[in-house]
Structures are given as structure tokens and as C-alpha cells.
Amino acid sequence: MNFTQQLLVPFLYALSWNPTASSEQTCAIDSAPTEYSLPSLPYAYDALAPYISSQIMTLHHSKHHQTYVTNLNKALSLESSLTESADIPTRIANQQAIKFNGGGHINHSLFWKSLVPASSPHADTSNAPNLAKALNADFGGLEKFKDKFSAALLGIQGSGWGWLVKGVENGKLDIVTTKDQDPVEAKYVPILGVDMWEHAYYLQYLNGKADYVKNIWNIINWNEAEVRFEGGRADVFQVLQSKI
Ligand SMILES: [Fe+2]
């Protein structure tokens, strides 16, 4: 594994892109998208109101997420031109840009699909029967999980994300947090993620972060959570295979 791959491996794994793959898998690498695009929201900007305002959703999706996508594509383009460069500091700085903006694209793509209008049937926890059994086994029930997850979200210092994850190896559920735009580690399947950056709530909730966390339970897409729980990382990250 060369120097660039060593730097990129954690991120590439998050993209289900394995630089040590076999020749057969390499075909998939060659066909991997070189440019990413902003995914459409699966609902209207005002569909999550009153729990998340139309103004927040509009800015969050069309400005913040778009910026991560734009900057990811710029960094990936620069990376390809730096392949033979001896300017290691520039290459390292660009790796950081790929990590930050790639993570931002991953995390937000998952986030939009984790939410659903409160009026949708998918907002009902009955859509996640197998996940509910696992939550009962690993946390003592849905309400206890929600309490623990909410506490984890409110315990995040600065900008970051809270996640319900499933262990790839043992299938056990756990709660983890990630800093800034770091994606969930490769050893987990992300089931549910909540954006705790101020841009996700401040325009509506101001310093009332606890109310944002309390209200978000009204708009969780439990159908999507069940699908992710039943699947693997490749299924979850399929959203990233879209190309312009
Ligand atoms: Fe965000």
C-alpha cells in the first residue's frame, strides 16, 4: 500500500472503496464515480416543519451540503493531479479536505434519508420490528435507547454527529459520536445519524439544543432504520455511488 493509500484508507473504506481489493473488485473501483452530486431530498423543504423549519432545510441542503459536494469534487480532482507530486504537505492538506468534505457528503446523504415527515407512516416505530427487538436486547427498550441517544447527542462538544450503529462483526447495537464531519468507522453500519452542528438547528431553536433533540424523534424514518439494520455497509453507502 503506497503513501497516498495509507492516508486514504479510512475514508475509502467509508466509501466502500477498497484499494487492496482483488482484480475482480478493481473493476468496481475503476467504475467508481469521480464526481459526486447533491442528492435530492426525498421530501419538500417544508415537509419536516414544525420540527425542522423550511428555512433550515433549504440552507442546510442547498448550501451546506452542496458546499461539501463541491469541495469534495475539487479535492478529488486535485488529488489526481498530485499523484506523482513530491509536495507532501500539499498532498496531506488535500487528504484532509477529502476527509472533511467527503465525510460531510456521506453524513448528510445518510441524514436526509433518516428523516421523514411526521405524517408519514414511516415515522411510526412499528416499521422497525427487528430493530426494536435489538434495541430491547442491547438497551433495554426503545425509550431507554432514546434517552441514552439523546444524552449522547447533547454531550457532543462543538460540531459533530451522533449515531446508532451496528457492529459489522458482532451485529451488536451501540451509540457513537463523531467529530466534525468524520464518518462512522468501518467497523460499524450506521443505522441512524443526527447532525449536531449548529447549522442543523440554530436558526429555529437558537440555544435550545435540547428541544431540537427532543423534537427530532417525531421525524425519524424508522422504515429506513430497519432497512439499514437488516443490511450491511455496502447497502447503506449505496447513495454515494451516484454520479453527475
Ligand atoms: Fe449539517
Structure description:
Mn(2+) binds at residues 60, 108, 195, 199. It catalyses: 2 superoxide + 2 H(+) = H2O2 + O2. By secondary structure, the chain is mainly alpha-helical. It has a single domain, classed as minor pseudopilin epsh fold (3-Layer(bab) Sandwich). It has helices at residues 3-14, 23-30, 54-81, 88-114, 129-139, 142-154, 202-205, 209-216, 222-230, 233-236, and strands at residues 160-167, 173-179, 188-195. Strands 2-1-3 form a three-stranded antiparallel β-sheet. A hairpin with a 5-residue loop joins strand 1 and strand 2 (173-179). It is globular and about 55 Å long. The structure holds fe (ii) ion. Fe (ii) ion is lined by residues 60, 64, 108, 195, 197, 199-200. Fe (ii) ion binds next to helix 3.
List its salient traits.
single chain, 244 residues, mainly alpha, minor pseudopilin epsh fold, 10 helices, 51% helix, binds fe (ii) ion, metal-binding
Question: What's the helix and strand layout?
Answer:
Elements: H1 3-14, H2 23-30, H3 54-81, H4 88-114, H5 129-139, H6 142-154, E1 160-167, E2 173-179, E3 188-195, H7 202-205, H8 209-216, H9 222-230, H10 233-236
Antiparallel strand pairs: 1-2, 1-3
Helix pairs in contact: 1-4, 3-4, 5-6
Bound molecules: fe (ii) ion.
Fe (ii) ion binds at residues 60, 64, 108, 195, 197, 199-200.
When the domains are counted, the total is 1
Supply Rg. 18 Å
Helix-strand sequence: HHHHHHEEEHHHH
CATH architecture: 3-Layer(bab) Sandwich
Sheet bearing the most strands, described? Answer: 3 strands, antiparallel
Count the DSSP helices. 10
Shape: globular
Q: How much β-strand is present in the residues?
A: 5-15%
CATH topology call? minor pseudopilin epsh fold
- CATH H-level superfamily: Iron/manganese superoxide dismutase, C-terminal domain
Overall pLDDT confidence: 87
What's the number of extended β-strand segments?
3
